[in-house]
Amino acid sequence: MNKPRLVVIGNGMAGIRTIEELLALAPDQYEITVFGAEPHPNYNRILLSPVLAGEQSFDDIVLNPLDWYAKNDIQLHLGKAISRIDRKRRLVVAEDGTEAPYDRLLIATGSQPFILPVPGANLKGVITYRDIQDTQAMIDAANVKRHAVVIGGGLLGLEAANGLKLRGMEVTVVHLASTLLERQLDTQAGKLLQRSLEARGLTFLLEKSTSEIVGNEAGEVAAVRFKDGEEIPADLVVMAAGIRPNTTLAEQAGLYCNRGVVVNDTLQTYDPRIYAVGECVSHRGIAYGLVAPLFEQAKVCANHLALMGIGTYKGSVLSTKLKVTGIDLFSAGDFIGGEDTEQIVLSDPSSGVYKKLVIQDDRLVGACLYGDTADGAWYFKLLREGRKLGELRDRLMFGESSIGDGGVQGHNRAAAMADSDEVCGCNGVCKGTIVKAITEKGLFTLDDVKKHTKAASSCGSCSGLVEQILMSTVGTSFQETPKTKAMCGCTERTHDEVRKAIRENKLLTHQNVYDFLEWRTPNGCSSCRPAINYYLISTWPHEAVDDPQSRFINERAHGNIQKDNTFSVVPQMKGGVTTPDELRRIADVADKYQIPMVKVTGGQRIDLLGVKKEDLVDVWRDLGMQSGHAYGKSIRTVKTCVGSEFCRFGTQNSTQMGIDLETMLANMWSPHKVKLAVSGCPRNCAEAGIKDVGVIAVDSGWELYVGGNGGIKTEVAQFLVKVKTPDEVKEYTGAFLQLYREEAHYLDRTVHYLDRVGLDYVKRKIVDDAANRKALYERLLYSLEGLPDPWKARIEGAQEREYIPLTVVN
Amino acid sequence: MDRLSLPNWTHVCQVSDIPRLGSRVLKRADGDIAIFRTADDEVFALLDHCPHKGGALSQGIVHGKAVTCPLHSWNIELATGEARAPDEGCARRFPVKVDGEAVYVSIA
Questions:
Q1: Residue A192's CATH number
Q2: B54 touches A: beta carbon within 8 Å
Q3: In this complex, is the C-beta atom of B64 within 8 Å of any C-beta atom belonging to chain A?
Q4: Distance between CA A604 and CA A590 in Å, rounded?
């Protein structure tokens, strides 16, 4: 009843996206009223081109059907344009006299097409290309008319021209500049584009300035005349010479406008009660005409409307894609380049491929791709991150597949895949299912796709591929998964921000974190709680409270949950070395508890599978062995070969080295699992090349490799340093793992951490800086000091009730 | 008393027997029951069987008034047993009564 009233002017993508974001944050905050000038619910304006081309229907592109508004208690006024904002009385007035008072107002009036101020611009048959009505007018005209002239060789103009051609018209595109898409492509790519569009039957008149649209007696368009006197026949003229932010209402209301409604970084206009988002807005002097920035704005605006007040919008880096089927082009950033930039160019005109990368100060600042855009998403990511290229530069042009990656970056094959090809091997999701979900449900982000299709929601190795499918399906509206991503839906904070706050403000409990960082949920979720728990105990060892309820069941019960809800038990076997006595006890336990499977693991240990939870403590007691931590984001195992003790090739005692490392790292929690291996000679039987830390003995000492991974995507460890003594092996290994423990995001393996910070950084911290290495090593030893073996602690009674089921008392 | 129309209240434990943001399992021949306790001491009971693939909900992380299944991370509302969108499914719910410290569950 007494809820504040939020009125939205504009029922388009920016306005409704803001409402969706707001409803997700604060569903009951406002009484919401939406005014739309068009008689339709919110639809996906960027998909008008496929509608025009006959590839989709209007129903396909509706984003929010009418029952969505009803379900969310939104009062919707369709077909009512607002004629006036009364800021004094705080209400808006529609053309039909409808009034709606507001406490907060959101202006999302979008943009208007620019009409060339030439004689004849108001003739019948001269239209713009902005909404579904224009699209329908073009479809109707194509049925009965012959000559179409599109004025403007930009994205919109070319998409219109292509659509009209597909519908059977003879189409001429008139463009003022000397090449097409001159704001999105450089000259060479523009020429290639022109050639392939000409091959499809389009005609181009470049460097032509329209002087008049000539009509017939009936007031219908008949021809277009140019400044040079030339005249061509025309039955339909489409004006696609640009857009102008629609600021009429805002200006009349006295809001400051300058090529758009001027807003600050929180999307507020000069009247703080009035927000504005979308194409009508001018932010830091830029009015955006693509959809990705609008969504970023919507997020920030919703955050403020929900009274969270922590997001800010700092502008967007744009990328472009043309939605003309069969034509692949992509550009982003400063793709023209200048005096202080360098360019890498690959040009193969006969096969229609052209790629240009612009580099400044060892960073990618622009990319322009034509013909082969598979790496567009990857270049865009590099560009937005502004990461130093370093060694990457040599292989940059050959794409992401030419370099090693951390397994979550994608493989550039989205476009070549058939709908029936499997994308997500964990959940059995095919490309077609993903594309269908994206188009039918209006998904724009990787997270949306994960939620709806389950693709990339398990191991995540296909997330790069899913992102590419998103990009090729939705084109410019694709929202890059932000690099600095919020931890989860409970907060806007990133992993780094949370970690910093815990460190700098000495936060010691979960509640401290939720209060201090203003968590949206009372006690987090299953995604952020384990992360925070790790950050707390790794930042403040021996001080922070380790909360068992914030640990995944495996780490709470100290066993690995299986599909039938039983657990697996893997006792510690340092370096893979065991004794007849231990083996006898394992055999006895397996008999006594009727353990259905006993299996040797890949980490040189023995796994007892199918143990009932209530038997766990008894099994551990009878085994009389320590926890192997085969269930945790923790040290797992140190795999070894037999080494110099027995092997005729062994150069060092690798087995003992492995045992020493495993002893040192016992009970260590980490951002993700940590696996080590020690080989006694370069034959490397312990497979040290695919471990988080791999040690390979050579005659003169030990070589250390880091960041290897044998899992989701096989990744070869990189050489870190060569040392002489076993003590040095321990110190360097310990220091590297402590750096990883202190800086990696929760659930990043060492390979992902290295991907992010670079091996050079790690070398500087560990190899070059002896004092820092020693300090890291000391911190590791301090945090491991006195940690109990969890199985022993539970045999002695810790967390007892976790393992004991209830029985009915009376 | 008409036993059909009344809940069959069974005393199962004390509130303090269940960890906050945690659960206990009540063994039962017709399927175990998971009994949850939220941060503000509300108690809920669901069949310990995720509608997705039968994961033991009692082993999940409890947050707000929901639990995340340990097998494939479905989120189940404690009050209704319903899976959170976009997942679809429902775990059977058992009525709970808290009398002082004593927790009663209606086990049909």
A1: 3.50.50.60
A2: yes
A3: yes
A4: 18
